[in-house]
Amino acid sequence: MKKIFSLILTMLTITLYGQEEVNAYDELSVWGKYSGENLYVLNPSENGTFSVKEVYVDGKALEFCQESNAFEIPLEGHEPNSFVYVKIVHLPQIKPLIINEESLIKESEFSLPSFVYNKKSKLLEWKAVEMDAACSYRLEQMLYGKWVVVKKLGKPTDMLAENFLPVQLSGMNLFRIVQTDEGGQELSSPVVKLKCPNRKILLLTDKVKEFIEFTEVTHYELYDANGTFLKRGTAKKVSVTDLPKGTYWVNFDGKEAVITKK
User: Which residues, at least 6 apart from 109, have a Cβ–Cβ distance to it below 8 Å?
Assistant: First the structure.
């Protein structure tokens, strides 16, 4: 009996330790327009342990050689000048380096010094007086490898508020404000980065009839079994009454799950 108890305790300790390791990882993110070059990463090691644990391109996990001090991130499938977002999950004490990050063409920016995250109020904040009255604005969040509009701000004179309560994903969150002038030309603000602890959001059941339910409000994306995009939004409960029976993929809080509609 003592041996069994000892074994269970050991397994529990390993599980908890592993969870602590996952929560302790840092993220390195880069983005821009594809110029025709792949990215090359230096992956340092310490006592035989390599830094990089996971790599994502446009929100999708990429297979790579983990036990190597250098590896390539292939981007050939992208069209020239198409948007690329790369996230590298790594150990915090030994950081990887993308040696040709400049090959991703940066989007043009406009100055907005007041755009910050207020840790006390937990709000994204900005000042309309710093914006061009002739332009319209929108707030975007990086979600699953894409910039997604989370709030249309309109013109500075039409803004009823100069703040926004963001719904964050576990891990690193990126936000920007996009400016559109009367001719349709766009510029983006410098990106605001927020690191959120593991929210531990779960899918309540993978077999549904009318609704997909999460344990908390989160951003989600829904795809059919063939990978065709169906819908996205921010909610705790998502209606699927308009969908036929079958298998679907759902992204939420940086996770991916398969559900079956009965």
Answer: 187, 188, 189, 190
For the chain, which residues make up each domain, given as ranges? Answer: 2-103, 116-196, 207-261
Residue 173, token pair as written in the block: 């969150």
Q: Does this model's pTM top 0.90?
A: no
Q: Which fold has domain 116-196?
A: Immunoglobulin-like (2.60.40)
Phi-psi region of 130 (alpha: psi -120 to 50; beta: other; left: phi over 0): alpha
- What does the pLDDT look like over 5-25, one tens digit per residue? 343 334 333 333 333 344 578
Report how far residue 215's alpha carbon sits from residue 201's, in angstroms, rounded to the nearest whole number: 6
Amino acid at 173: N
CA 169 to chain centre: 7
Per-residue pLDDT of 182-223, as tens digits, reads: 999 999 999 999 999 889 999 999 999 999 999 999 999 999
The reply to whether 116-196 and 207-261 are identical in fold is yes
The CATH architecture one would assign to domain 207-261 is: Sandwich (2.60)
